[in-house]
Automatic annotation (TrEMBL):
Organism expressing this protein natively: Alcanivorax nanhaiticus
Keyword Cytoplasm among record annotations: no
Protein name: Spermidine synthase
Keyword Coiled coil: no
InterPro entries the UniProt entry points to: SAM-dependent_MTases_sf
GO biological process, any: polyamine biosynthetic process
Annotated keywords: Polyamine biosynthesis
Length: 226
């Protein structure tokens, strides 16, 4: 099942498997640079149809999983069609910037920022990737946590403020993830030092991701940027 808005695909869901073979896999994949048990609290900004929720629940199984979505029809699809309501997700129909500004709770071990405007006819970020926005996100990341941000392509990231050294304040490692199915550049900021070889080793140790079908479907390239 696929969710489109104005000709742009925003979500993809496969009831019988965790992997999409596309950009949605890249958003949760960086978490596997570290042991999964550290991700007790996870926040998804930009739920869309909920493509990220089944793999996050199956592979990380956080105690708290929160998702924020601005578009009411998208949230309805996520809850009623893609079935995320049954996976223990606390969903909020809200503007992610305002929600995060007003949030007063404990930090998150993983924040996935996937904010793309459903009203646009091209794949463009809904929130400019300024240092102010990245630091607001980072202020809610735990001491050993990770921040993942999605960009429409490498140029959008390269030309943004968060591609510079200032964005590494409080972080030890930075990675770019990409795949052959899309132009997106997914950037992961890790509080703890990490190396991409650990991701490959970890994938081999996870039964759901080490099968022949999973190895054939998981399309990703990871490059360390720091």
């Amino acid at each position: 099942m696929e969710l489109y808005a104005n000709g742009v695909q925003h979500s993809e869901f496969h009831p019988q498997r965790l992997l999409t073979g596309s950009v949605w896999d890249l958003l949760w994949l960086p978490a596997l640079l570290h042991p999964t048990e550290r991700y007790r609290r996870v926040l998804v900004l930009g739920l869309g149809g909920g493509s990220l929720i089944p793999p996050i629940r199956a592979l990380l199984d956080p105690q708290t999983l929160v998702a924020v979505e601005l578009d009411a029809p998208h949230l309805e699809v996520a809850r009623d069609v893609f079935g995320v309501a049954s996976l223990g997700v606390e969903t909020h129909l809200a503007d992610a910037c305002q929600w995060l500004e007003e949030y007063q709770g404990p930090p998150f071990d993983l924040i996935i920022e996937d904010l793309f405007a459903p009203s646009n006819e091209q794949v463009t970020r809904a929130v400019p990737a300024s240092l102010e926005w990245q630091r607001r996100l980072a202020s809610h990341v735990s001491d050993q946590g990770m921040l993942v941000m999605n960009f429409g392509d490498w140029a959008e990231y390269r030309d943004s403020a968060v591609s510079g050294d200032e964005a590494m304040q409080g972080f030890s490692s930075r990675f770019r993830l990409s795949c052959g199915d899309c132009h997106n550049a997914v950037i992961a900021f890790s509080r703890s030092p990490a190396r991409s070889v650990k991701l490959r080793r970890h994938l081999a140790d996870i039964p759901e991701l080490s099968t022949r079908d999973a190895r054939g479907r998981l399309d990703y390239h990871i490059r360390q940027l720091d």
